[in-house]
Each structure stands twice: as C-alpha cells, then as structure tokens.
Design brief:
about 475 residues
Length: about 475
Amino acid sequence: MKKTFKIVYIVLFFLMLCLPMALMPFFKNDAKLEKRALAKRPSYLVDGRLNLEYSDQFESWVNDSLPLRAKVLTVSNYLQGELLHGQTSNVIDGRDGWLFFASEAPDYMGTNLLTDSQIRSMAITLSLLQEQTEANGGHFLFVPVPNKSSVYREYMPARYAKGSTSNLTRLTAIMPEYDIAFADMLKIMTEQKSEGLYHRRDSHWNYRGALMAADVILTGLGRPHDSQADAAFTVEQIWRGDLEQLLLPAGNGLDEQILYDIPHADFVFARPQGVRDTQAQLANFMSDKEDHDDHFSTQNKDLADGSNLFMARDSFGRALLPYMIDNYETATFRRMDAPDLTDLPEGTDVVFEIAERNLARIIQKAPFAAAPIRTGMTAEGLAAGAALEVHADAFSTGGHIYGVLPDDTDLGDGRVYLLLEQDGAQIVLEAFPIYESLVLDGDHANGFSAYYSSDQGISGTYQLTVISGGTAYRCRTIDL
C-alpha cells in the first residue's frame, strides 16, 4: 500500500510539473497586461549560425508563455505586495494604497547621484538647445516632471530613507546660471499637491496635474491662452493605472480620474494622414497603449496665426496633448530623450519634457541639432593633450563628430570645442559635452558630440583639435 501511494505521488508530482507545458498550446498570455513585450520562441540558428544564446532565450520564452501567468502573478504580487507590503514586479507598495515605480527609489534616496561634471553637462546641453531654438525665432522651455515620490513622499514606505538631495534639485539649482528657461514643476506641484495631482495607482499625474502643468508650460513659452483652472469637472473611477497593471495584471482595480468639461479646438492629423476619427486617434495617443505614438503632428483648424510647436516628450506628455493642440496652429510631438531640432519651421516653440527618473538620458545621446559656430577660438598657448578617440560619420545633409575625453582631467567650465583646420582656414564648433554611451564601447564620464550641417560649409578633409578645460587635444585628420 505504501509503495502504491509513493508511485501515485511521484506520478502526480511529475504530471503537475508537465501540466503548464501541456497547456501552453491552449492559453496565450497578453503582453498588454504586463506592459512589456513578451519573449518570443527562439530559433536554433541566427543569420545561418548556431544561436549561442538559445538556452537563455528558450527559458525566457517558457517563463513568459506559461498558461495563466498573469493570474498567477496577480495572486503572488497581491500576497507579497498588498498584504506584506514588499516590493514586487517593479512596484513599491506605499502607504494608504499608494503605489510607486521601483525605478523612482534611487532618485528618492539619492543613491544615483551624477557627478557635478555630469550635471553641468546637462545644463550646457539644455543651454545649447535653447540657443538654437531662439536663433530660429522660437521660445524654448525645459520641463522636468518630478517623480510621484518626490511630490508625495509621505506615502513612501518608511524603509526608504529620503536623500538630502537629488539630480533634479541639483540641476534645478544650476540652470539659472545658464539662463535656461525651465518650468520648476517640482516646486509648483509640491506647493499644490493638496489638490491631488497624481494617481494613487499610476506613476503619472492625473488630468488635474496635467491641466496645471499645461498652464505653466504655455505661460513659460509666453503663449497667450485661456486658463481652465476653474473649469467644471467630475471625478470618476475609470482609470486603470500602469502600476496597478504591473502589480495585479489580471485584476480589474480602477483609480479615480478627473474629467474636465473643457471644449477643445477642432483639428486634423497631419501625421498620420487619413485619420477620420480624430478624437478616437487622440484618445489612443493619450492612453498607455503606446501605439505608434512616437511621432505625430496636428493642424488646428481654429487657428491661422502661423504658430508652430515641437514637443519632445515621454509618457507624461500624453495628458498635455489637448492643451498643446488647442494653442498652436501646428504641433509636432515626438517621444524622444534627444530632441531633434533639424528642419523646424522658423519661429517654432520647443518644449523638452522628461520625467525625473529619466534625467540621466539627457547626456547619453546628443540632441539632433547643428553645433553652433564659434569665433575667436584658438589652440595657441593651451596645454597639449594626448590624441583622443574620435569618430566621424558623414550624411547627405551633414555629419556627426563624436568621441571620448579623459576621465581623469579637469574640464574647466565643461565646454567642448572642435577646431577644424583645412588649408590654413579654420572653423570652430561647440559640441555637446556628451559621451555617446549608446553607440561607443566602454564606460566613460566625459565625451563630446557635434552634428554639423552642410549649410555650414563643412566638407573635405580636416585636421581636428578638441579644446576643453584649457587643453588642446590634437587628433587625427577626419573626412567630412
């Protein structure tokens, strides 16, 4: 009898192990529930060669394809997060039912502080963006959006100790030195947080926070507009928060949303073309579906003043869309951390909106903007530095010069200049003080990156000298 029981027990045990694999053909998991792309079944061969990462990829595919995964995660996360108040699924379970992105914790505790040089590089980068925008006749505004935990810190768990400073507060303190036009959303939203500006179960501001932000942005741009602060509204339990979905993917919990009775302008989409139901398309772009929302443009049918807006944004920018569309004849919205200022119509206003948790991305990749030409710059009398790693890529409309600066050197004011010499003549470009970490190998703190335009008359072979911190680094010749 005991032997029979053991055999039955072993058989049932292995059947339970095999059951998930056996059910895989009959159940499909929904990537939308987990807010990420699920792993796909790997191939043995990649580009005709043996896939050396097959085992890891296969394991990821199996884990993502197990039947009822979302429901199992929901139960597990509910027990660990909602009942035990532990961190799970990249979500921090806060006080009184508030949820926070785990990625906010380093900013909150001040454990991810950038160097003073990196903060300065951010400020210089923003000042160069503003310079080009204003040279094109437009207004510039930088909009750093604070993490929810930076505004509603009282709901963070006690085990997360608030740091004495953060990258956002340090950048905010230095930007006035560079005359950067920016919206101090941390100060404004902290002062007004009793109004209820962020969702409890979502990482973003609600429509009340977005309405306040839109008013601040339009005012900062000097754009005349009607304030809608006193507009009638209703509060409805209709919002499915992104953190709620991460924590309880198979659940159906809803958060409050503030719905305003505000009439908006009649408009059409210039990109994508052929949209018949503009309101449905706008609602799609304002949702968290992230469905082809990386680049689109609108044409306001109620305005004919020639006004143009370019907005580099992230997910916080979704809720701002109606107000920006209302107040510009044409508006272009791009999801990008490196704004593209090329080919903007003259007089275009530029908004660069980015969440606090993504600030470091500003100096991971240089913006697409032609480096300004400087005069009166020479390498004479400067200390001689060693040759640097330099890369030069030519395009039909210009090119890109970028490279690495020594990590163990004083860069002075942080500015970087590229001296290009050809047949006794010279051109000096001011580069973004950015190490192109997304395309260069290694881990370096200092670098330079400059895009140039064919309109600047740069063509042919040049001797390059990089000037920074009182040192001239004579580099190789480059073909541009």
